[in-house]
Amino acid sequence: MPSVTSGTILVTGASGFIGAWVVKYLVEQGFSVQIAVRNDRQGEFIENRFPEYKGKVSHINVPDIEKDGAYDEAVKGVDGIIHTASPVVFSWEDPEEIIGPAVRGATGILKSAQKFGTNVKRVLVTSSTVSILAYDYDGSAKPGLTFDETSWNTLALELKHDKSSSPWLVYQTAKVKAEKAAVDYVEQNKPAFDLVTLLPSYNFGPFIHQTGQELGSTLGMLVGTFATPDTTGKLTGDWVDVRDTAKLHVLALQNAAIGGQRLAATNGIFAWQDMYDILNDAGYDAPGKETKGAGKTKQNTAVVNTKTFKYFPDFKYHPLEETVRDMGAELKARGFLN
Ligand code: NDP
After folding, report:
1. pLDDT value, residue 180
2. Which atom of ligand 1 is nearest to the CA of 240?
3. In a domain, 226, yes or no
4. Distance 12 CA to ligand 1 centre (A)
5. Is residue 140 classed exposed, middle or buried when 0-12, 13-18 and 19+ CB atoms within 10 A define those classes?
6. Looking at residue 135, what is its pLDDT?
7. Distance separating alpha carbons of residues 338 and 10, to the nearest angstrom
8. What is the average per-residue pLDDT within 92-106?
9. Is position 76 annotated as part of the catalytic site?
10. The CATH number of the domain where 255 resides is what?
11. Residue 293 counted as domain residue
């Protein structure tokens, strides 16, 4: 199995929460990075984000990832690809706005790599634990039950969506369809590179990407709960520190034995109240002060991460307290938390 230990890596979604950390760790590991972004403004922001990026990070514009051949130019001359770009939004006019870019982006980059990426040895596609496990609506999900990478969220795969569908289920469908389409593409077309899919759970932690007046992705979800806090301890999910997710992307690129596999990146179960407690204890003004400890009643089905330790025995996930405290500092610095 080919691993990628040097050279240039194409990173999509580099303007996002996870992608920005992936770029940072790639540079720290000595890689050059080409980022695919939607416009020069994003590209230039990232190129100049840290002094050590000078001469190591460059950008190429890919304005529409759904277009045939969108990545044809971007894959030329790169040694590996990390494809994180996919919509992480939960409001839309039409579910295709989410499913289309997720699926066509993932298959499109593989097609481009096979045609024009003559140096590409490995492609990594960021999937999600929602591609393993149906959260919130799966009647079979029971407290104490665990799933691993052998499981596929076939429920979300088979759902037919329309404008009245739950955005959360649409997101699940988009992610599992995109991952399945990528795996099928490689099986059917047998390119010279191999494929690894990375399946993180809810990412939290500090952020280094550009943010606007609203936070997107899972950061936006957390801040969204400040207005209508969940203090029951029952709204739960699996979580992981964004820095661990990004590091696992870079490690998976470099590890020969992991070629062709799915790798979950996850570190246990959280309730929103757990985060409020950590933020409040650290002196921030989060909701849920009167319900401190209610998160401890949480119960859910979990995704296990035994593969991380099989392939990366020395890997250490951040504990929730550290992740949330570091995130709190950045949320405060950018005006999202008092
Ligand atoms: P962000 O919303 O912070 O970043 C998403 C990235 O994808 C941005 O760079 C964005 O570009 C790009 N993108 C979104 N839609 C499109 C599109 N239609 N065309 C081109 N680029 C697009 O999300 P995250 O960083 O959190 O997520 C990154 C990946 O990780 C996604 O694949 C997501 O599904 C997956 N993931 C995320 C988890 C999480 O908890 N955050 C958990 C599990 C998986 P732009 O800046 O131009 O909008």
Report:
1. 98
2. 40
3. no
4. 9
5. exposed
6. 63
7. 37
8. 96
9. no
10. 3.40.50.720
11. no
Residues with CB under 6 A from ligand 1: 13, 15-19, 38, 42, 65, 84-88, 101, 126, 128, 175, 200, 202-203, 216-218
Q: How far is the CA of 126 from the centre of ligand 1 (A)?
A: 9
From the candidates 175, 177, 247, 298, give the one annotated as an active-site residue. 175
Whole-angstrom distance, CA of residue 19 vs CA of residue 16: 5
Kindly report the protein residue whose alpha carbon is nearest to atom 18 of ligand 1: 101
Q: How many domains are contained in the chain?
A: 1
What is the greatest pairwise CA distance in the chain?
59
pTM of the model: 0.97
What secondary structure letter does DSSP report for 84?
-
- Domain coverage including residue 146: 8-206+240-267+304-309
Which residue is closest in CA terms to ligand 1's atom 46?
15
In this structure, which residue's CA is closest to atom 10 in ligand 1? Answer: 13
pLDDT in tens, 218-265: 999 999 999 999 888 877 788 999 999 999 999 999 999 999 999 999
Least confident of 3-12, 190-199, 296-305, 315-324: 296-305
The stretch 33-41 carries a mean pLDDT of 97
Identify which has the larger pLDDT, 144 or 36: 36
Nearest atom in ligand 1 to 12's CA? 9
